[in-house]
Amino acid sequence: xxxxxxxxxxRKESVELMLHRYLNLRSNLSEKEQNYYLSLExxxxxxxxxxxxxxxxxxxxxxxxxxxxxxxxxxxxxDTLLISSEKIFMLEIKNYEGDDFVEADKWYTxxxxxxxxxFHQLERxxxxxxxxxxxxxxxxxxxxxxxxxxxxxxxxxxxxxxxIIFPPQLNRFITHLSKNKARFKDKHLKLAxxxxxxxxxxxxxxxxxxxxxxxxxxxxxxxxxxxxxVELKSNVLVCKECGYREGITSTVLRGVEEFxxxxxxxxxxxxxxxxxxxxIESRNTMRRLLQQNFKxxxxxxxxxxxxx
Length: 308
Ligand SMILES: [Zn+2]
Known about the structure:
By secondary structure, this protein is an alpha/beta fold. It has helices at 15-26, 31-53, 118-135, 170-178, 186-197, 248-262, 270-277, 283-293; strands spanning 6-9, 62-71, 74-83, 88-94, 98-103, 106-109, 114-115, 142-148, 153-156, 164-165, 230-233, 236-239, 245-247, 294-297, 304-307. The strands form 4 sheets. It has a 6-stranded mixed β-sheet. Helix 1 (15-26) crosses helix 2 (31-53). This is NERD domain-containing protein.
């Protein structure tokens, strides 16, 4: 089997994160929603940080990112799963900042607020994965590891008998894993593919804020600084805040994608898009841009557009 590098599933923003990102720009999220959004954004940035560091591992590990599986009506999520011919490595990545401490199996911030012990989460996922593999008739050693990527984090009284990797240990951890000579074989690739095929696209536990079309700010924002203070200058969207320039085709694709993500039941039609984009004033231009970039369904007044 000639598979030098195998990244079976790339990480991308979750539906939950994307939705919060859009709503954060177009509506007033409550303080609670805003905090939740920031924690999602931070978690995702931490995972990306780890992906960048762990790049060398793709030479001898099968890597599956962001895998959501279901066992016994319970959905569980794995940040990173590494597979070699010897074992499965389940990694939970945390982008914590500040000082925490552990006492009697409980996890606290330094101000003594108890927070969810990430070990319990990891143990729960491990047990679910183990049972799922058993059901598939696969016995395979599973190892777990809790990884802290942010150098601004410190854990007092960290238990020695728990698998934790702190920022100063990360490079050594990656180097150690990249020396793994137990290369995966065909059957491991099959297992990895099977797990990816079982991925649950939408978590049933999504915490999605309520929103309505008429509550959201319309217009298109700058792709770089997210400001709505933009203008159209001969087929280029120019940001008045940061000066970023984007070709109109890319702007239209992006705006329609956001619209259909937020309102999957609404039709993409010329009038609706004039209202959504705000910045394109001419009906003819809007229609032409939609015709060029999407597939037209129907004609005249009731025509609308879908992805090519
Ligand atoms: Zn900008």
